[in-house]
Target: Aminotransferase class V-fold PLP-dependent enzyme
Amino acid sequence: MKSNPAKRIYDLQQFGEFGDVNPSITDSSTYTFLEGETMEETFLGHMEGCFLYSRHWNPSNKYLADALAAMENTEAAWVTSSGMAAITCALLQLCSSGDHIVTSVTTYGGTYAFLKNWLPRYNIEVSFVDITNLEQVQNAMRPNTKVIYTETVTNPLLQVSDIPELAKIAHASGAKLMVDNTFTPMIFTPAELGADFVVYSMTKFINGKNDCVAGAICGSKDFIAKLSNVNDGTAMLLGPVLDPLRSSSILKNIHTLHLRMKQHSANAMYLAHKLEEMGLALKYPGLKSHPQHELHTQLMNKRFGYGGMLAIDFGTEKDANHVMYKLQQANVGYLAVSLGYFRTLFSCSGHSTSSEVPVEVQKEMGLSDGLVRLSVGLDEDMEEVFDRIKSCLA
Model:
């Protein structure tokens, strides 16, 4: 039987200081100690259960981190103030000057910019590959490769990464596999498929409300301890701490994530079938026409569906903008970046969330000038929503 991350969260009992059914929210940046020796031991990382300073740990962030570790079936987790903070801190903890990373060329624009434009300043080299071409991944590996980095389902082309095979390639070379699972929480459990680390933008599906920005890193206890070490921990020293109030809010929302992912998936599948019948050029992993449909089906936790993300190619930016304008006017959703919201969101990827990727690279990887990425919402009547979409396409 496939993994059930929803049950692992359900089985995690977390109470507040006074027996609150919702864990108490930390409203303090620093914490007292009864003895000076205990403070010193906490600074040295030798004390568990003691809190030092909120940039290091605080109870609210620990509650959320424990829930995320349960969801991902990892030993531990760390929460950050954004998804990019999670990605950058995790990679910088693993890599030093002279190291090498192999990554998917199809990835979120901010991640691409960090890998392509920022890491070379510190003599960290990056090779961009077609992550679905395992031979290309293998050929890109070097003796100094420290990480293979990919997204479970890539942004925005919705390619599916073969996590077990990528893990084999990484581990055979002494490297680690890091997977961004932002598009597919609960649908995939990357750590169970061989990934060493899992990162998230919790801004998206995990929180689901588009009312905050947050990230997460899931991995071994040893790795999380190194991340938070006061002397050389990347997350501790760069300081992307998540506000405790937001941690508390996300923790509440995570308990409905399994229901939301099922509904996002069901709605997206309905639209994908209807739009494919109309003859539109679209990508959705739940369709048999998708190149990695069988791989997705093999690796997924089936109870949660194929996800809420689909992409439609309208050919040109002009046509894409025209259709998106009409969709917003018809109240199908909003012309906005981001995803995982309860309303449908849509944007022209090459001119928004993937605009950091040079135009020539976009063409090489198959990103059309008119590709529209849709994050399908939680609408109750998808038949009525489809009628609105159809009127816009006419």
